[in-house]
Amino acid sequence: MGFQPTHRKIRFGRHARSWLLGLCVWSLLISTAPARPILDASDPLCFFTTVADQMLRSSTAQWSTQNYPAYTNTFGAETTSPFSITNIPVLIGGQFVYSPAVNRLLQLAANLYDATTNSPYPSVFRPLFTATSAGDLYITGYTNVPSVTGATDLVFSTPFDPAIVAAAGGTNVPVNVYGVPWIIGAKKGLPNFNEFAMENTLAVTRRLQVTRPAINPPNGVNLSTFNTNQMYLMSLNTSIGVELWNSYVSNYSGTILVGVNETALLAITDDDRNVQNPLFMQIFTTNFISAPVISWPGSGAGLASGSPNTSSFKVANFTGPTLTNSVYRSSYANGEEVPTGLTAPCLIPTNYFFGYLGTPALFETNSPNGFYFPQFGVLLTNRLQVFMLDFNSNGVYHVIDYVSFGGPNGGFNVNASLADADTGFPATYGVWNTNYPSGSFAPAGVTYGVLSQILTSKNGSVPAEDGTWTSDPDAIELGNNVAQQAASFSAFFSPGNKFGKTTNLLLSVQAPYAPTRYIVQYLTWQANDPLVHYLASDIDSTVSPNTVRIPQIGVNHYNPGEVVMPLTGLNLGRLNDNYMPWGGNPNYHPFAGEQTFAATNEYNLEIKDPLLWQPDFWDFPTAPYTTLNWIGRVHRGTPWQTIYLKADDVTANGNYVPWQDWTGNGNVFDATNSAPVQDWYLASLLTGLLNPTPVGQMVSVNNTNTNVWLGLLNGLTAWTNSAGTSGSVVISSDSPQAAAIANAIQSTLLGVPGQSFNYVGGILATEQLTEQSPFLNGLDPLAQISDEAYEIIPSQLLSLLCVGSAGAVVQTNGGWVVQFSGSDGYAYALQSSANLVNWITIGTNYPVQGSFSVQIYPASGSQNQFYRSVLLP
Fold this sequence. Notes:
This protein is of the alpha+beta class. It has 16 helices and 31 strands. Strands 8, 9, 13, 14, 15, 19, 20 and 21 form an eight-stranded antiparallel beta sheet that branches. Strands 10, 11, 12, 16, 17 and 18 form a six-stranded antiparallel beta sheet that branches.
């Protein structure tokens, strides 16, 4: 069935050289035209680069047009035009700009290729990088990695930060770059990288020393003559864990090698120095290659209930950078000499009471130094590379997974984490309170926290929030147990016996109670969908099923006696907190009325495919098909979702938060560019690239003849869940359901601007094709039909449609621009004629974003010309 020929004639004025432009749109007139060639699935790199290039060119043209300022903010000020697979921005003007929306298109191209093969291994494409003289970095191509020589293959060379590669220069350099993933096709049944976790534990102990000028002054005890000194001891331990998971029920029967390369840098800073010159710095590296894992256990039947087989998880633990007990030596200390070879301020490793910070009187208010405690910070950066190789029976290594992250990076404000809230003095005032009592002002006097520590040391009773107190071996001069030490310390301040003599004859004494606080930072990057874990945004999600009932992520503090959960006791080795397939995380069913993200999106088919209860429920295509009906079953590159052919829009009415939360993409513009309804446009492009249907058998998506639509629907398969007829049914053109769908398409068409779809996928806005199909009866989330069943009608219909071409002209300086609409991926011949009888082809054009343009410069005195576009087979 061909297009109805349309003609448009426009006559220009005499000053425009009396040109006459006739626009006539034809399809091929023979219905037996040969099918359009399908991309060669035997050449993975050609297939991948061709499809990815088309999607990038068309999509970036669309993105730049819809919001140019956001486009340049996202991809850098230098990115002013659409880009292709040969110039993907990575680092522009010093800004890392490789985006999740771009990566999704690349991932989708690889997934489409894998849908045409029956290989058990995924396709693997490694980026090539080019640096410009301006110091910008681009991906300028890809190489196919069909196999490797083993874990020591050069393709696994240690990655670089993007800025290093940009500064080094080079063209099409085959290096690895942190934060820029290899593109690996989605294949069902393979173990995957699943989680990175890190726990930083900083222990801070404060010791106090009190001194006095004399033992028994003649005028009695005068507290204003007492001096109080303080010292802080710090130690830090870092635990790092990498987790891999076979998320499928069955064992993986092959042999797998795992490689982990980790570099972590720890720094402790204070406001005496800048971040570039920290007090302490340590770099930790590890290179780990596992022993062969043979027959990797599957998750088993327990996955459905949230208790997968623990053997399905493989965890590699490392002890990262550490700082042993060290004392901070301030540059503000009175009369203190800095040890040889060290510059003030510094952290001095010690296992004993080394020195004091300042010498202010207990209640003195005019000391120049006082209890100076600088602004401390802890910074920790990670660089992680993980790869997984399958070693098959033919002695060949295949890459089945590869990740490379520039993070996660930790950091926290030590002072803020130490400080206690105000609760009242003295009974319940925390020993870490940093406020000053009346008459004692910063930095001269002591804080409430120090006063509380002195009070505790005197009475031997520790506030509950400050943990427990056992006798201090460094205060042995005060006694052998808590009671003796408290009594002796109290005597240091007392008038003494009836003769006015103190029973403590020391001039200097340590406070026997030295509180310790543990500041713990827990960071975890977890996959939601095991097949989506290549970007930090994929796994650095702030959304969890229930933030109250899972280990608290972030910075927390603990006191002695409180339980600090070790890293291995948190999420490693068990189902991810962030795992949220259809039905939600089986370990975190919401309470009644709960409004967490997970609770309100357990059954949201706008963001995940229905009935995908666990990874085994994927139904990816695995062999070449003679139609395009399989397109909706290809993983789209976002969690738990295939190419989206439904009508509902998760970003409707400008509400982008649910989609941002789901994808972890903090850039609203970029997140929107990966939203499910973007697939409407991509489906149009892909039908042009992959569709085997002959052009002569296609119908314009803008056809207004209801009978034509009834004819197209006739014989297609639909799905029904009506009582007594559940399953597939064949659509009849004379059925009321077909009439309802045809009328709904016409109604949708009338509602779009200009009453014309600009691309084939525009028809997917018709709800009656999917969610509101007249063949369906209700949408009970627990009795849902599958995503494939929802999308069964448009998956057949799209390949029968294309956009009928229409033309227009725009005058420019010295000539005209002839514009034609059309379907991306199809070829259109531009033809001219002086008499509407004899036509000459003057060029072949391929629409981008639904149109193409040709500049015409007529010669002076030339005759009138007509132009038309002809859809080629």
